[in-house]
Amino acid sequence: MGDLIRPQNTIAVLQKNNFRFQKRFGQNFLIDGHVMDKIIAAANVEKDDYVLEIGPGIGTMTQFLCENAGKVAAVEIDRSLIPILHDTLSSYDNVEIIHKDILKIDLKNFIQEKNDGRPIKIVANLPYYITTPIIMGLFENHVPAESITVMVQKEVAERMKAVPGSKDYGSLSLAVQYYASPQIAANVPPNCFMPRPKVGSAVICLQCHDRPPVQVKNEKILFEIIRAAFNQRRKTLLNALYHNMQMELTKEEILEKIIKLGVPQTVRGEELTLEQFARLADLFEER
What we know:
Order of helices and strands: HEHEHEHEHEHEHHEEEHHHH
Helix content: 40-55%
Radius of gyration: 21 Å
Number of strands: 9
Number of helices: 12
Mean pLDDT: 92
Strand content: 15-25%
Low-confidence stretches: none
């Protein structure tokens, strides 16, 4: 198991297949066994788990997943990697290789078909420009997932788990924490990849909530308020909501709701907790 994690073996596979890295797919293959162990441990993959791997590359992490999980579905967008995956994973009978764009798969139907609708575990090493849209797509479409363990740009991981009042706290922090509990499992320097990315990375595990930690009457209003609050970060919450929300409210009406929330009139969005945003959303919903 895990032969591909050795850099010389990764190079041999790539040369044998005349593989060329494609910038449009943001391909960076992991070549560090210690990091791989941390990913598997963070994902807590067990023998009765169905695991969806997004972006398996040449199958390096897939081999580890196959050894630990009951079944693995590896979804790869790059056609040139499909024959390589069939080769590197040929000794495993619990993996299905799927050549598709993950954004074009109806994952609810997929999980219903493959795992009788039971929650799955998702593991991914994705191009960083598409990581957040994929994660938020999984959350917003209420895909039945127990956890999402993903390699992301280090600063994105820090934003996901940031707390109120910190420089990293923002709309991404609140959105992720509404759906899941984030925990950084490992920081990963550029030399752990081939080719080396220009930024540091981190493995973050998002343990999905059975139900959100706050109850809100209207999720759409909650996230509209959150987006507006951070759209112009330096503004007070009052001015940010007045200038950025789609609702036709006067400044006085918005101020009245902020006062009802029990916070200072000059408060900024970065000072509010998820619970306070939820209460504010309910005040807007009353209208």
